[in-house]
Amino acid sequence: MKLCVLGSGTAIPHPSRGASGYACLAKDGSALLLECGPGSTRRWPSVGLELGSVRTILVTHHHVDHCGDLAAALFGRAVVFDEKPATPLVLAGPVGHARLVRGLGDVYGKGVAEPAAVTIDEIGDGHTRVYGAFRVDARVVVHVEGALGVRVTADGRVLAFSGDSGTCEALVGLCRGADVALLECSYPAARETTKHLSTTTAAEVAREAGVRRLVLTHLYPECDAVDVEAEVRAAGYGGELHVARDGDVIDV
Questions:
Q1: Would you say the pTM of this structure is higher than 0.90?
Q2: In whole angstroms, what is the distance from residue 180 CA to residue 106 CA?
Q3: What does the pLDDT look like over 127-157, one tens digit per residue?
Q4: How many other CB atoms sit within 10 Å of the CB of residue 198?
Q5: Contact (CB, 8 A) for 237 and 229
Q6: Cα Rg of the chain, angstroms
Q7: 28 exposed, middle or buried (CB, 10 Å; 0-12, 13-18, 19+)?
Q8: What is the 8-class DSSP label of residue 213?
Q9: What is the dihedral of CA 87, 23, 182, 124, to 10 degrees?
Q10: What are the structural domains, with CATH classification, of the chain?
């Protein structure tokens, strides 16, 4: 399984970091999209994806920097499949996801309101789903109500993804034994936060879970002013460490 970083940033505009978006690519060529933040669909072609080949988009919660491109993807499909059969698409997300998708149709009208061949799948705490080559185990984490972290298994490899989350046992459990832990790292150590991770708390989660390979993402611009890796090391994490950048392709 490969992890492609489509957007390693946040809702705050940044010259080199786009909003949240990741593609998991299996050996059979299938893809699982994690998050669909504003602008992330622009990077799909760079990893070989297009509107007709994307079959599953999973968003962890309903903040706009994680799901803002869903309307664009649906409208684009309406144009592409206007005169030919549409390929199936699963829109997966937390409880309330169906309401969100219906709301997009209410706002944007035709093409988004009645998307062809689209199934909506709401995921709760402890649920397991199988989307083609990918098994997804989900837990509710500490962020907003119903926000999910997920554990993705494909090709015998495991990726744990925090979504947006503060420190919690559910997140530690998702990360334990994973080949790669993709953790948000919103802030430098000096900023206290309970519903996001900082360099310090990301290190603490990774250390407690015994993570061997840690990839940090979802960095707010204020992280540019510090040495992120040094702060993570200072907090006691000694495993393999990578600070994600847009365009990264990582072997899980």
A1: yes
A2: 39
A3: 999 999 999 999 999 999 999 999 999 999 9
A4: 25
A5: no
A6: 17
A7: exposed
A8: E
A9: -10
A10: 2-251 (3.60.15.10)
Q: Which residue is associated with the tokens 């786009």?
A: 18
DSSP per-residue codes, 63-96: -HHHHTTHHHHHHHHHHHTTTSPPPPEEEEEETT
Measured between alpha carbons, how far is 144 from 238 in angstroms, rounded to an integer? 30
* C-alpha dist (Å) from residue 50 to 18, 33, 104: 19, 12, 21
**DSSP string of 121-162?**
EEE-TT-EEEETTEEEEEEE-SSSTT-EEEEEEETTEEEEE-
Q: For residue 111, is pLDDT > 90? A: no
Q: Is the pLDDT of residue 110 over 90?
A: no
The rounded distance, in Å, linking the Cα atoms of 239 and 200 is 14
Least Cα distance to 90 among 98, 82, 79 occurs for: 98
Taking only the tens place, the pLDDT of each residue in 53-95 is: 999 999 999 999 999 999 999 999 999 999 899 999 999 999 9
Structure tokens at 209: 């879970």
Q: Tens digit of pLDDT for each residue in 23-51?
A: 999 999 999 999 999 999 999 999 999 99
Q: What is the dihedral sign for C-alpha 128, 156, 58, 170?
A: positive
For residue 214, give the 3-state DSSP assignment. Answer: strand
